[in-house]
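Structure representation:
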Amino acid sequence: MSFFNRYKNRSVINSDRFDRRRFNQLYGMSDALQKLNEFEKPYPSFESLLGDIWGSLYKMRPKLMENTEVPDDLKTNHSFMERIMTDEKFDNYRKYTKLDELSSILATTKFGAKTKEWLEEQREENEKLNEYMNELQALQKQLQKQEKQHKAGQSNDQLQEDLQEAKENIHKEVDQQIQQNGGSLSKKISQAFQETKETNERVKNLVGGTQAGSGETEIKKVPLKDQLQLAEKISNQEHFKAIAEWAGRFKRIARMKQKSAHSDSVERSGVRLGNDIEKLLPSELALYSHGSTRLDFLRRYVERQTMTYDTKAKETLGKGPIILCLDQSGSMSDLDAQSKGFALALMSVAKKQKRDFCFIPFSRKVEVHRYPKGKIDTREMIRISESFLDGGTDFMLPLKKSLEVINESRFNKADIVFVTDGEAHILDTFTNDFLKVKHEKEFSVLSLLIRGDRTGTLEKFSDRVVQIKNLNDTGSYRAFEI
């Protein structure tokens, strides 16, 4: 039975049927919210509290019910919601979560977890509260046992009265603790909101492209359930957090590199007539700024006769596919998060330029993953982030697979980025065959050697070998210029 079918109208705010139905759907999508509610629930109406927290954050005009209108068994929820909604920072939280389903459900999970954490702390410090909550849990177990032994509706009246009394006692103690220690609860809620913002930004780092502000646009294209799955992975696993942060950093670097490449192409390509305001020559802008020449400028601008930069050369830059061969041998384990952030950023370059992308992680074994036009969904992001091959290093395996991929028509004239921290023997016969195909297919190889100085093997098959300390070294940024 679903959440709000069981708890219809059990709310201390002005929730309506739409609110309850939508939260029921979101609750079903969020594993984190379900786990928070289902395991060691602190008190019976806690699950209704989660719905009210969400409603207060998501609704356009949430309003707390008058205390006199609240059923006795929801009084505790009312005390919590009153504290949350009257907090001086609450309106600032809502600017971020109002009518935003991802932000509001993430914040609900965080707020609920911090509320539960605060309650456990109060329980440790307040013997009465701890005693009442232990009593409530014992009575609930006894009631559940009795309901199994008797037919519905034949539960012991005395047990029900004891249960109600325990709930009232808990409410009195919790309400008193909120009045006395509400500042600590507000502090935890503030921490929860900060964690929500950070998680949301990391999701945008992973999903967004190399253009500024693209995270907001790209995330809207992802199904909400997938957004939540990715967000909860990032929220709960430090490794995912690190990958998202590295991806965001490398995408910003890629954006600068691509912008620089664009500027260079503009300088080389001359001028043409047109009226693209962003491409107007400085001399034309000067004519506009003087009163005596402004009318003539405007006439020519309307007739598309003003001089603008010709940027056709930009379209010829980096149009070939990209193949990334990434070392995942055991010695690369400490750079795993960084290297995956690097891979996702390079994939974003491919996506922005509509270039096919192939990811080949390798060690003593190899995998091949193709992404047409650089497009990747959240499940693949999660798979890439969680996978690590480990083991020794073999160069010939990924290079052989690269040749197989390049023989596919769509990967003709590919650029290969080969990333490793090691050295591996390559047969001369293999090198000769590789170079022959390289000449025929007209592809290039950029190798990045991390923490090493033995470049001999890499130089056999690479156009260029760059020695770097790690992938955040400026030398590695050359990969974003291809």
Strands lie at 271-274, 306-309, 322-327, 357-362, 369-371, 415-420, 444-450, 464-468. The CA atoms of residues 223 and 265 lie 37 Å apart. The radius of gyration is 30 Å.
